[in-house]
Amino acid sequence: MAENQAVITALQAVLPDMQEADIASKLEAPKKHSMGDVAFPTFTLAKTLKKAPQMIASELVEKIDQSAFEKVVATGPYINFFLDKKQVTADTLKAVLAAGQNYGQNDDGKGANIALDMSSPNIAKPMSMGHLRSTVIGNALANLSAKNGYNPVKINHLGDWGTQFGKLIYAYKTWGSEAEVKADPIATLLKYYVEFHDKAKENPALDDEGRAWFKKLEDGDPEAHKLWAWFREESLKEFTEIYDRLGITFDSYNGEAFYNDKMDRVVKALEDKNLLEESQGAQIVDLSKVNENLTPAMIKRTDGATLYMTRDLAAAMYRKDTYDFAKSLYVVGGEQREHFQQLKAVLSLLDLPWADDVEHIPFGLITFNGKKMSTRKGDVVLLKDVLDDAHELALKQIEEKNPSLADKDQVAEEVGAGAVVFHDLMNDRTNNFDFKIEEVVRFEGDTGPYVQYTNARAQSILRKAGVEVDAKNITLDDAATWDIITALNAFPETVRRAFLNREPSVIAKYALGLARTFNKYYANSKILADDANKNGRLALVAAVSETLTASLSLLGVKAPKEM
To answer: Where is the DALR anticodon binding domain (predicted)?
Structure first.
């Protein structure tokens, strides 16, 4: 944290043999406010200095230059620093207001590319709640990458190839109609897909028909390819509407089909390294040398067709060639953990130096009102419907709280969509959670709308003040202010930690904490009172608004100025 720099400087002056980073890593927050703001434990110095930690702490306190602090005291084996609250407050507010939306930005990544494989819905099927997690977690990690000095490359690896398209083509040709598809493309195609599976249960021969049509598609049959391209185009139109509502864009829509002509390179590389083995007619790579618990990676089926693994290996190589990534993140559900372990193992057996830069970012399942969702059975909760319902619930609350609000519908869209996104991201990434929309779109409690409403409240105070905030001559030092300053100072390190842990919930929880701290301050302070500290209080409000807006932006959530 920024305020720790004074502590680090003071300690380094009396511990010249310790590196700045080593001192910084040992700093702690005392358990109680009354014990100070920053603590330095001396246990690790006992061995080198050959003294008891309590004695080391006492002796160092005598040597430390205390001019930059309220006081520095030894408490047992700890050196406790009480910061100069007026100075830290003034410096912090000045830094936040000068940086604006760049507050918390760092240059750790030095512009290196980070590839993110995310969202990846299957064409000819609507986007369901099952696609939400990969989409919003991937987008938040892309935003965090940029905030940490990297250049994110967002890749929507569309599910646009495979036997299911043969089944869909058969279903369309057998009982579908062009007019019906054109009237409502994706819902109709989903209906055909579900109907195919229902009929295949009674007549397993239909699966052979589906496979035959996919073989035609693979072989470049003009009719099969024309239908596939049509299904893909219609799907992308509908997907784009959803992505627009979520405020998400992509740098690439190269899906599975894109790699059809890029898999020979994979097979050749494996052959050159003598890694391919035959097993029951299929071509596999034995991974036991890398990890004895891993099952073999299937590269080619008995009929010679390539598999997901072959395609993902081709995609990994293409992305390294194209983007020269520092990291390649796959934001895919936890149930695919073994697949990505296999992928990394094969890359390492190929002696590719960047194999360790490939990371699977798993996440838990989302249930809807306690139930799992399945496309094949038709039990699907459409993401569009959830966003529509969230919009309506947000609009209803806005009309109750602020009926004269201009652009009510636009604000309701930002609040509704933001509520859905925030709820997903405030949960630890690997946890399963249940989604109940009435709880998600509330203006109180641990919700996105609560954070948005807090920011809108801060903006309302600034509008009422009607003056330009001056970041100079700030002399605030009360306890309520200090709680906010401590939170604001934590933001840059929180940004770094969220990215390093690949954990957007760190930011969501931070935003909730800052919002709660500010609302407590708001309830107990006369912010607009005309006295010497009015400008300082307004600077505090403006800094909170900047930081809440930046936090929400990292999560992919809008921050309306009025609600």
So the answer is: 451-563
